[in-house]
Write a structure and sequence with these properties.
The chain is an alpha+beta fold and 354 residues long. Helix content is 33%, strand content 22%. The protein folds into two domains: 242 residues, BirA Bifunctional Protein, domain 2; 99 residues. It is built from ten helices and eleven strands. Strands 1, 2, 3, 4, 5, 6, 7, 8, 9, 10 and 11 form an eleven-stranded mixed beta sheet that branches.
Length: 354
């Protein structure tokens, strides 16, 4: 697709399709950019400089999202259980669309409303090594979404209106539209696939807009990310907006953890006697957080090498620290947050199972 997702909304709103000089991905923006706006191509620029007009907590951000889609003729639906008892391929709800796979997405069942909006609690355990270290990874989170299920006989809305709604939502909350980029990145999961746009601002991925119109088929004539698909008669708007990331971007705190659970972080910091460390190293911690987007902390990663990479960039900007000094400051805080979120995940899993 030489033109990519060439939507009338983009053209009418002054967007142009550009190519990132680092990752070579295509993206849409209203201003000329060299980079796509995604980490690790860029660093976080919203820390200390919130993206939205006012800070929000979890309840305020969730209600802002759901109320917006209420006004745009979407029906709120109740969240589903975290344990995905209706699935035979996953144990936990990992995304809002997981609630509707495979029965609704396959056409076997009707959706509870169409279009609908939801804020679905999720658990993902594949990023455990990154929790506490990247500043953005969580094990438990809420994925807010608006979904539309189009069939051959009923057309709700598709790509253009999806992006239009997304852009209006964020700009209505005070985000400067010129700071938003839409990065093209096809999506696959749960037996389905389709074109997708990652919604980026300040170096942070705020949402993903998936246009699901493919289903896995070993004889299919379409290939995405090494998997064969065929076109299906349904086209499904599958969006995912990170509730916690919206809260974080609205507050501009050094990490997502202070924004989402400020009382818990404060309490554990006091109990671990880390208050003085935070006070004396506040600027360093903030600068480190801005660079955390470059970290890719996967299982088996060389953490020392990753720390050295960040340290080199910190020292180049004026800090003078050895690796051992840097580690002695950052590691206690990482461990504190890791303990907090692993404990929360265990509590959630225990609650839903027992």
């Amino acid at each position: 697709m030489s033109e990519g997702l060439s939507l009338s909304f983009f053209h009418d709103s002054g967007f142009t399709r550009q190519k990132c000089s680092k990752c070579n991905s295509f993206f849409w923006s209203t201003v000329e950019r060299e980079l796509c706006g995604d980490a690790p191509c860029v660093e976080y620029s919203f820390i200390g400089k919130p993206l939205f007009s006012k800070p929000m907590n979890l309840d305020e951000a969730r209600e802002s999202f759901l109320a917006f889609f209420d006004k745009h003729n979407h029906t709120r639906v109740e969240r589903a259980p975290v344990v995905a008892r209706w699935r035979n391929d996953i144990y936990l709800s990992i995304a809002s669309i997981a609630v509707f796979q495979p029965h609704v997405t396959s056409g076997a069942s009707k959706p509870p409303a169409n279009p609908l909006t939801i804020s679905q609690p999720c658990i993902r355990l594949n990023d455990l090594e990154s929790v506490g270290r990247s500043g953005r990874h969580l094990t438990t989170f809420e994925m807010m979404a608006h979904h539309a299920f189009n069939t051959e006989n009923e057309k709700i809305y598709w790509q253009n209106h999806t992006v239009e709604l997304c852009h209006e939502l964020y700009t209505s909350l005070g985000l400067d539209g010129a700071k938003i980029t839409y990065k093209e990145n096809p999506w696959v999961g749960g037996g389905n696939g389709g074109e997708a746009l990652e919604v980026l601002a300040g170096g942070l991925e705020l949402a993903t807009l998936v246009f699901m119109d493919l289903e896995e088929d070993s004889d299919g004539d379409i290939e995405l990310k090494g998997i064969k698909f065929k076109r299906m008669p349904r086209s499904i708007v599958d969006t995912g907006y990170g509730l916690e990331r919206l809260v974080w971007a609205s507050q501009g705190t050094p990490t997502i953890y202070e924004a989402v659970f400020p009382e818990a972080v404060t309490y554990l910091t006091q109990k671990a006697n880390l208050e003085e460390l935070l006070q004396t190293s506040g600027s360093l911690i903030s600068e480190n957080a801005k660079l955390c987007g470059v970290l890719s902390v996967d299982y088996g990663s060389d953490l020392t090498e990753l720390r050295q990479m960040v340290l080199d960039r910190l020292n180049a900007s004026g800090h003078k620290l050895s690796l051992s000094e840097f580690t002695s400051i950052i590691e206690p805080l990482e461990k504190l947050v890791t303990v907090l979120f692993l404990a929360m995940s265990r509590q959630v899993i225990w609650h839903v199972w027992f």
